[in-house]
Design brief:
This is Molybdopterin-dependent oxidoreductase. This protein has 705 residues and is an alpha/beta fold.
Length: 705
Amino acid sequence: MSYWKPTTCMRCAVGCGQQQRGVDEGYGIDTVRGNRNHPVSNGLACERGIRETENPSGEWLTEPLVRRGDTLKPTSWATALGIVASEFIQTIAEDPNRIAVLGSGQQTNEAAYALGKVARAGIGTEHFDANTTLCMSSAVTAYYDAFGSDAPPCTYDDIPKAETHVVWGANPAAAHPVLYRWILDSASEPDSRLVVVDPVRSETAADADRCVQLEAGTDVELARAILARLVETDRVDRAFVDEATDGYDELVESLPAVECAAATAGVSVEAVDALADAFEDRTLVYWGMGVNQSTNGTDAARSLINLCLATGNMGPGSGPFSLTGQANSMGARVVSSKEAWPGHRPFTDDDHRAAVADHWDVPLSRLPESPGPGPVGIVDEINRGHIDACWTVATNPVVGMPDATNVRRSLDDIFLVVQDAFRSETVEYADVVLPAATWGESEGTTMNMERRVSKVTAVSDTIDTVRRDLDIIAAIGNRIDETLFDGPPVDPESVFDEFAALTEGTPADCSGITYDRLDAELAVRWPAPDESTEGGYRYHDPDADDGETWSFPTDTGRAQFTEPTYKGLPEPTDATYPLTLTTGRRAEAYNTDVRADGQTGDVPTARIHPETAGQYVQLFDRGRTVVESRRGSVTVDLAPDDAVPPETIWMDIHNTAVNELTLPAVDPESNEPNYKQCAVRLATPDTSSTVTRNGLPRTGTLGSD
């Protein structure tokens, strides 16, 4: 009989502890449950995390495949790896930057570190991304600008201490159920409250004491209006501002008139006042993809941080808390050499680049000097003919990236290697498919959104034709440079130790974390510079000997106010495309739903205000209509819902069809795509008639615009 083993859920980024048990015969997981001893979740678990760990319903990949004509055919591992290595080595000889590598927040830290090492030190390409640019890059940029370091200053320990919880552009009731329970428990205390800011009244908003519905994409202006009101009414914490920050006076000079900014955001001045009142208490501000995934995403995140700094909402029970999307997005940022070298070493700093090259024992000249343009930029480079090969690991860009038709066309034109546990839509465009083990078959670690490292354990072997991510990556890496790894098979503990040593002395110091320590403590929060300490609230030391309780890794040692500006929407509505599409998450789905194949259905649902639905009733056929953007069209089931504002359509970002519509514009500083707003219109299901804002029929196809 198999025994229970502790592990960590790899669904979302809360990092809940689980116990799992393998089947008595054969391969696979028998049972999964919450782990009462885990310091993160104390036995709590969500149904989705349990279900998709225990019995994912996607189609498993069970053997390597190679393309023969129009068909993927089974092959041996030796043949598959030989083809990949041969293609990569030939391309590297021409130009390493002609290879792109796309990783994921669904990998262990060890696999993500190894993939970054192969991409940067083996191949030497700047065209590498760990998927963080699709979800967290705007928040990362804002954190660096304000604090000199990535990651939230606050932790889960601060949630029960907060008096006001402001959830902005996020829906943790659907996306992070366990975290949301903590928020609700705290907000239900006397003199506590939950305030939600979102264009759509979400499941989280249903529990809120107040919900402010702003125009999609105008978060910067609403946050600036709130700060302007706080300044006008003398509710700025000048003691904190003077002690610990720079740039306040310059920021105040840049603020708009409250009435003007409120009008841009589509809210009343009274709503601005109510939000300003919220910041008078000890306040945690949580934000998610509704803020980040925008061409204004970095400035929106900066604006929320400015609100916390100006009101002194820094320290236990308060602060700016970005909510991470994928399970190991935090880990990917710390380990994978995407936007920074491991440990958040600055990517373009010569001394840090030299330290990394020395640690990896590779020529400094091999390491790229640029962190790269992000996934959308990589697709652009493919379209320009600058990239010949792409390797995707545990990610599904054909569905998950904006303007999906263009992504499919781009990947179909190059040599594509897909490494995954499940048969995703991207697999169908691959030249070589490498079947990987999934969570219950892999050993390693993960890192949650509050910086805690914990172990992922295997309770089942894999079948002979499936290999673990780390071993696949090492096999390819060693064919490029035989000195990169010992093995495969590769010991994940040795890879973690190599990574941890590289972080010593950095802001994300993990050098005091070991597998033995994780076995004993289950989860350890960085920075952990030795085996007896772990990180708490960052930048704050109430017991400092010199009396200075705040210290930030910026040039001045003080937090920095920034001066955000609103740039408008990249694709505003007009007479031809009069409606705004925005996207969000459903509780039962996640990412591109590869692990829950078939649960989204063939036809996505579009939620629309009943009043707006009434204006377009002539375009409905038995409850169906077509949503069109300048990039594509999707047949949808219509769901009238007054939680969605008039002139707006809400669709599930996990559905495979939605990114046919979305816009590939990116934030100019973070390169994060603008998933959350694009201009659309409705058409009859046969697309023979489209109605525009003036109410007149428009006939023809998208090509006639």
